[in-house]
Design goal:
Elements: E1 4-8, E2 43-47, H1 57-68, E3 72-75, H2 79-82, H3 91-109, E4 116-121, H4 122-133, E5 140-144, E6 169-174, H5 182-188, E7 196-201, H6 211-223
Parallel strand pairs: 1-7, 2-3, 2-4, 4-5, 5-6, 6-7
């Protein structure tokens, strides 16, 4: 059953723990030392946006916040940007990179991949969602600034795989994101059979001034999964 929950940083509505979580919504949404349950997620694989690297400041902020709630975080580079190329890698290369990183993190933590969460910023998050739709068994998706369509081209939706996402999904986006307006995300995520949480913060696609708020939302949502 599809369920949807909303959040808005104007009153940080995901339940504690952690700094006051967000507000506004249409509802729902590791074998690790610490408070994680025996079946909850224990790790998070984070991927960057197109042509960016694993040291993106937004990913670093999420890494720090999620580590503080007890999960192990692996920030991943895609091969092209890691080699200094400006052109993004093909979806096949990105998805293979995500599969490898997820398997390696799961093996290091001594758990199956279904106890690892995957996600990232923009294109990286989209590639993670495609990997999950193609059969990679993971605990959940964290999709920051999901690029629903190219700016100014709302008819070119990147949602064909949404009906195959039968797992919890967190979308965190800026209220002024040209790649996905809040109303568009609300409409299109109805196709996702898994539990969906939509969280909106101040900002555009970059979320440059809201990175701390985004990190708190992600950490709180993952802590709620325990």
């Amino acid at each position: 059953m599809h369920s949807l929950r909303y959040s808005d940083d104007s009153d940080l509505a995901i339940d504690p723990p952690g700094p006051a979580p967000p507000r506004e919504t249409h509802s729902r949404p590791s074998g690790h030392d610490g408070p994680m349950t025996a079946s909850g997620p224990v790790g998070l694989v984070l991927t960057p946006g197109a042509s960016a690297r694993r040291d993106q400041s937004g990913l670093v902020a999420i890494d720090e916040a999620v580590t503080n709630v007890g999960l192990s975080v692996e920030r991943v580079d895609f091969p092209g940007p890691a080699a200094g190329k400006r052109r993004p890698d093909s979806p096949a290369v990105c998805i293979d990179t995500i599969r490898t990183a997820t398997s390696e993190l799961a093996e290091r933590l001594g758990v199956p991949t279904r106890r690892v969460v995957i996600g990232g910023r923009s294109m990286g998050g989209r590639m993670c969602s495609m990997a999950a739709a193609e059969g990679l068994e993971v605990a959940a998706l964290v999709l920051v600034s999901y690029p629903l369509h190219p700016p100014g081209r709302p008819e070119r939706l990147r949602t064909a795989h949404f009906p195959d996402l039968d797992l919890p999904c967190l979308f965190v986006s800026g209220r002024r994101d040209a790649f996905a307006a809040p109303a568009e995300l609300e409409r299109e995520t109805v196709a996702i059979p898994g539990a969906v949480t939509l969280a909106f913060v101040d900002g555009d696609h970059s979320l440059r001034k809201s990175e701390s708020a985004v990190a708190d939302i992600v950490a709180s949502w993952l802590a709620d999964m325990t």
